[in-house]
Amino acid sequence: MPLPGSAQRWAAAAGSWGCWLLALLLLLVTGPGGASEITFELPDNAKQCFYEDIAQGTKCTLEFQVITGGHYDVDCRLEDPDGKVLYKEMKKQYDSFTFTASKNGTYKFCFSNEFSTFTHKTVYFDFQVGEDPPLFPSENRVSALTQMESACVSIHEALKSVIDYQTHFRLREAQGRSRAEDLNTRVAYWSVGEALILLVVSIGQVFLLKSFFSDKRTTTTRVGS
């Protein structure tokens, strides 16, 4: 017996909300497959390295961005287990590099601030190893995805895009706030310097004008014959 119109609408709404809740729950529980997101402090004249065990044929992506410090740049270097350089960039503010592991082993990527003498940096990186596991594994399946499962997969992908955009804008907001604070500090120092210069010039002008109108005593010496 077919459902009344209102019941069908309620069933469709319940199914939609069920997909949203299921996709959000799976995204929070499982998270991106093999992804590492870290924000760390990199002191001046320092170098920080990270290591990751990767299987052959795995697709990986390294993305980084300097959030605060100096000219917002850093050196980055990626090496395979044999020490072969896969990626190397000098004084980059942000970049992204994708590669496929050619062999099993421990891959190393380093961030260096050795060229900076006074300023430390705050660096964010996201290292993704492999693809995300499927929301509905195809093993032991004899039929295609149902309409509700397809909707859940689409919502899951949309939520991952939302998280990526949120991370991107959060980093931009942090970098913009750091630039604004640096600019505010420079303006404050410049204002104090100008005030001191004006004070010194004003005092100098007062003494200079006073010297123009001061009485000069002259001494006359008479020499009698």
UniProtKB/TrEMBL annotation:
SUPFAM superfamilies: Supernatant protein factor (SPF), C-terminal domain. Gene3D superfamilies: GOLD domain. GO terms for cellular component: COPI-coated vesicle membrane; endoplasmic reticulum membrane; endoplasmic reticulum-Golgi intermediate compartment membrane; ER to Golgi transport vesicle membrane; Golgi apparatus. Keywords: Cytoplasmic vesicle, Endoplasmic reticulum, Glycoprotein, Golgi apparatus, Membrane, Protein transport, Signal, Transmembrane, Transmembrane helix, Transport. Residues 47-129 form the GOLD domain. It holds the Pfam family EMP24_GP25L. It is a single-pass type I membrane protein. It comes from the Eukaryota. InterPro entries: Emp24-like (IPR015720), GOLD_dom (IPR009038), GOLD_dom_sf (IPR036598). The chain crosses the membrane at residues 187-209. One of its GO terms (biological process) is protein transport. Residues 1-35 form the signal peptide. It is found in: Cytoplasmic vesicle, COPI-coated vesicle membrane; Cytoplasmic vesicle, COPII-coated vesicle membrane; Endoplasmic reticulum membrane; Endoplasmic reticulum-Golgi intermediate compartment membrane. Belongs to the EMP24/GP25L family. Potential role in vesicular protein trafficking, mainly in the early secretory pathway. Appears to play a role in the biosynthesis of secreted cargo including processing and post-translational modifications. This is Transmembrane emp24 domain-containing protein 7. The gene is TMED7.
